[in-house]
Amino acid sequence: MALKDRLDDDRSSSDRMSKSTVQHWRQRLLEEVNLDELARLTMAQRRARLEKVVGLLVTREGPVLAAGERAGLIRRVVDEALGLGVLEPLLADPTVTEIMVNGPDSIFVERAGRVHRLDAGFANEDQLYQTIDRIVAQVNRRVDESSPMVDARLPTGERVNVIIPPLSLVGPILTIRRFPRSYSVEELVSLGSMDQATGMLLAAFVRARLNLVIAGGTGTGKTTMLNALSAFVPESERIVTIEDSAELRLKQEHVLSLESRPANIEGKGAITIRDLVRNALRMRPDRIIVGEVRGGETLDMLQAMNTGHDGSLVTVHANSTEDAVYRLQTLASMSDVRLPFEAIRDQIGSAVDVIVQLARGPDGSRRIVEVAMLEHARRGEITTRPVMRFESDPIGADRVVRGRFRPVPLPRDLLTKLFHAGESVPPAFAGAPSPNGTAHPGGRLRGEQSS
């Protein structure tokens, strides 16, 4: 083909990078490579080998492209052959926290707490199905009409949910939640998720072995907060973490991570969070950390907190600290052990010391909006007593959330508990004298190693 004809055929840049073009070069690549030889290479070597082959094919048979377009075409073709196609650059983008594929032509991503639609898409529904199959095959699962819903986890930690027709009416739906980066409490303070005094107080709570519940809606940063607070658990303690998808990354040496397992294709072999909580009690844990309680395991967790496993941490979906209490009551009642409602309420009042409430603002920011301790008398109602609240200013035209963290002096019994544990209290919260008659000194943000 003459150079002029090749230029005329490829005049539009959008045509150069069209989906059909990528599919064409992917097919030509499969015809050229030796799959047996490729199987003996590492992933990095495979990618380098395929990029070289695609480059030669484009040079020999393809249109004349600018350097950037040529590199982009090669990358997309190799991504289709080895990775997850158009999702590969999104997974490589650290600013993307969630990827939502609503059919082959509709892809949304979340960045900085806000959702944006992308221009990219899959060539067709078959290509989307191939990508889904490639994802679920990594965890020995399959998705078809007999099993149209799948939860999986990528090797790099991302959580994946797939639902396909006939349950979905818009085609295959793929949702990928990125593995959250581990943040320290100091980093969360710098990001405005809490103030310095609140960070010091929560660190003291963890070291003093108070039982904490981290509550909030979806995407408010509960797992991130749980991971940050877990850094203050002493190195000498044996920790068991229990999650649906292993996301926690604790820095301590003696950490045992357990992950639930869904049922297989025959509907058998499921291992639930409740099964793991019960098993954890036989593992001599000093602390139990549950990624999220959603059902009957809540009662087992409350009983563990009441029987010597102080300092445990859990998360729960709730929109306020009061809602968190009612939510725990409802979840605990889902257990197969039928207990009177008053007995469940007493279990919660005795087990839970503090609730940390998170929320996400209109600007996508995530922060602690309330820290409350529970007050409860036997056979009485549970009340929440705030010790810190975030007071928000009126939202302006820029939709940015501004405000201030308002501390409240801690009650005497909580001050006494912290004092007996050898923990100091930030001055903003030390409104009452300590049990020995002196004011509590200010606390410090520190891990156990630097104590």
UniProtKB/TrEMBL annotation:
GO terms for molecular function: ATP hydrolysis activity. Belongs to the GSP E family. Coiled coil: none annotated. Residues 83-362 form the Bacterial type II secretion system protein E domain. Gene3D superfamilies: 3.30.450.380, P-loop containing nucleotide triphosphate hydrolases. The lineage of its organism: Bacteria, Bacillati, Actinomycetota, Actinomycetes, Streptosporangiales. Residues 1-21, 426-451 are annotated as: Disordered. Residues 1-18 have a biased composition (Basic and acidic residues). It comes from Actinomadura coerulea. Signal peptide: none annotated. InterPro entries: P-loop_NTPase, T2SS/T4SS_dom, T4SS_GSP_E_ATPase. This is Pilus assembly protein CpaF. CDD domains: VirB11-like_ATPase. It comes from the Bacteria.
